[in-house]
Amino acid sequence: QAQFVESGGGLVQPGGSLRLSCSASGFDFRIAAPTWYRQAPGKEREFVARIDSTGRRKNYADSVKGRFTISRDDAKKMSFLQMTILKPEDSDMYYCKDDRYNSWGQGTRVTIDW
Question: Are 82 and 56 in contact (CB under 8 A)?
Answer without folding.
Answer: no
